[in-house]
User: Fold these one by one.
Assistant:
Number 1:
Amino acid sequence: MFKIYLDKNSPRIVINFFGIKLKLKNKLSMFLYQASSHKHILEKYVDIKKVNIATGELRNAQLELKSFLEYFDELSKRNNLKYWLDSGTLLGAVRHNGFIPWDDDIDICMLRDDYEKMHTILLNELKNNSNWYVREYFVNPTNWQIRIISKKFKQNIGFDIFPVDKYFDSNFTEQEQNNITNTIKKASECLKKKYSHAKNIKIIDVKKDIAYIQRKKILYNKIPAQNKPALFWGIDFPCDAKQLIIHYDMVFPLKEIGFEGKTYPCPNNIDGYLKNFYSNYMEFPSYIINDSGLRCE
């Protein structure tokens, strides 16, 4: 029997070869783990859709996040705000009918207007909450999105809400899409540069700068298209999508998808949406480790 996993008591990789355990340290362990990448073994013998759900503290964290998602869904409906499952959470819904077994957060997207309204609502709703709080300060110079964090766990278990903005045009060629994506990345770098050495900055205080940079460097002071505007991920966070601007029809009209026993809003074109993030999202990735444990996305 051959297994590779994280040692629970130290930052080491453990290789178990028929009962013989080898513990590898630090950078060497990471290098060997990624270099050996048993992806081809997993793909040959394991159906990724049938990987067992998480157990222990990670599963407890997932259930806590699931509970907050149910609350968030009710809160959105009560205030007539739209959202949709995004990135790893959407992938988990498609591939596992719930959480990716190694995932430890929830990803949500909202159009900017609804996003700002929800931020105000959450600040008010959670100000005296004993289990959850809204992050006030930035983590790094490009990480300003709304993050609601659980107080129950040592790790930074959180619920992320990402803003999506409307573009001034509705249509673009593939080359134009590439060019606009590069423009958005440059605008994001501009924001990052401005706050590269900042400390103890409140996220709410950066909103004006985010809006100004997007208006000047992405929208060129033009008004978003009125009829099905193209959509782009805001510079509030480092989005991992290949294309940072997509057609309106990729998302709307929203559909519904099952996640952990309930249904939630999702993009109209799920396959295209996920391929923009993960290419072939039904495969194991090339490595499955991060600071908090085993994961692929």
Number 2:
Amino acid sequence: MDSPAVTVITLTYKRATDLAEALPALLSAIEEHPGADLLVVDNDEVPSARGVVDAFDNGRLRYVHEPRPGIAAARNRGLDETADSDLIIFIDDDETPGPGWLDRLLEARSRYGAEAVVGPVLSEFDGPLDPWIAAGRYFDRLRHKSGTVVEVAATNNLLLDRAFVSDQGLRFDEAFGLSGGSDSVFTRQLRRAGGRIVWCDEASVTDRVPASRATRKWVIQRAFRMGNSEARARIYTAVGRAEELGERLRAVGNGLARMGGGVFGVVRGTLTRSLPARSRGVRTTLRGAGMFLAAFGYSYFEYRRRPAKAAAA
């Protein structure tokens, strides 16, 4: 049987160093798969990553420049550039695939016959992690037994059946481009279209977390954004007014429950001097607040970009 045409897609935005470190591992991952290639989508206003890609001078490595701002626009450019591929795999530019990563994804796709396969992302830090962040488990991600069907997935380690995506007219909604959550909307729509997303726990990648993201400010902002974008995605993909209203009420109820439980955790942790209780309480409170505000139309733009003149100043 011929090897499927597989394109691994990595998006990048002003992270030349991360990209230069990621590309050798990604090229190594596709080396033993004759039908595989690697596509870099540069989402900077100017083609700042072209030199990094060109330096590798590898025929299985492609570069495209997508200047329209927002991660959803970059993801859609990845779709546009891979119409002839059988399978596509999204992975971040600061991630390193584990041993046998591509084999495991392809095996899971073949075994389960799913339209999408998602694997775990493991975090690696530049130095010792702030005990408050570690206690709150801010970088822990949910994992499942291989073969588990999941309802939603991120694009930081995601294989997709390209023909199914095309047949169903699936695109990443650019209304979520600067807020995050377009992958949640996309995969929820994939599920509504009859596609299955299967977990493969053996196909792991490692996320290199820089010191700039291993801060209390960054993790609490991310907790709020995750709650906000999760609820917004559920509301946005609802079908009909009744279902949309139900999702808004769900966001209100879940948001209030999380805020109440989180505040209780902070108080309990303070009284008992429990660092995990305090830290997790903050995380739960902020995630709940993001959900609650989403019910009333509030969007938090984590990826909002400063105008070029302001950034230069």
Number 3:
Amino acid sequence: MSTQLPLFPVTVVGSWPRPGWLLEALRRRQAGELSFGEFQEIADRAVLEALRHQEEAGIDIVTDGEQRRDNFYSFVVEKLEGVRLMTVAEMLAYAEDKTFFEQVLRQRDVPAYAIKTPVVVDRVRLKEPLALDELEFLRRHTSRPIKVPLPGPYLLTRTMWVRGLSDRVYPTARDLAAEIVAILRDEIVRLKDAGASFIQLDEPALTEVVFQPPVRTRTFMCASLSASTEDPRQELEWATELINRTVEGINGVRIGVHICRGNWTTNEAALLTGSYEPLVGALGGMGVSQWVLEFATPRAGDLAVLKPLAGTREIGLGVVNPRTAEVESPEAIVGRVEEALGYFRPEQIFLNPDCGFGTFAEAPVATPEVAAAKLRAMVRAAELLRRRYG
């Protein structure tokens, strides 16, 4: 779907804080007390509320706030056969070094009972499209371009494959990956045909690949228990290959990849730190339209590391930090965008938060009021930039 966008389009990464009544419905759904259809009717109200915040702020490209999702990737359990939802605490039983894993959870401020992850326990088959229902509902209620976030193929494979649970069906994670790529590829085509303007593949686990020293056991990132024994360069090559196999030959829709450093806590010290420099080669090899990257947090390092990639893609520039209560000024946002103009053309720069405002349903990092104020600041900054560079 081709949509004319203004210069410096403003959008979100995906999630919005869920209201308490939606969280209660989600718990009841997961406990089997509500049917899928009953939960969807309740979630419809929350989607409309998230949309209202975005439209009132003046956002150019909207999402449904991921209101129907427990988190940005676990929702696939409702759409796939052979997948089971487990809390991080439940997954502890399958960690190769339980003491180490518990230490990681404490150090990284992980709410082990609140964050849930999908785990493959049988042959994976599609029951129904992953996000088509989300798009179709949103399209009935807005005329604005719509972004649909999807978990990326590397993230899903890494997260869903757990030794002792998944290996009797898929001996290795790479065996599972072929299934995941096919499912995501078909979904992107469906979403494109249904009118999505922007499809975003979320791949936050790529930062753990490069920012953590090799260990002999499993580690935590996005509730993943994935083994970290591979050479980081090989992992990045594999991730890039999976992304490219997923998007190859698909035209007519903007496809981006979002990479951050974790978004489950407001404690910045508990999250990963490191510039995008080790990922520059992988970014350059991804056959996507846009990189959606965080730069509002000092943990993300300097924009200058992207100089070798200057002008080769669009950048979804993180200009507000969803984890802080302080609302960035439009002038400060303009300054960050003008720094990016040293490497990207005005028409290549989109404005967005570093990550979602409510990545994990039970652990939002912002209130709706703060999130809305940050959206308004981005919109005001875009207005100033358009007058200056339009």
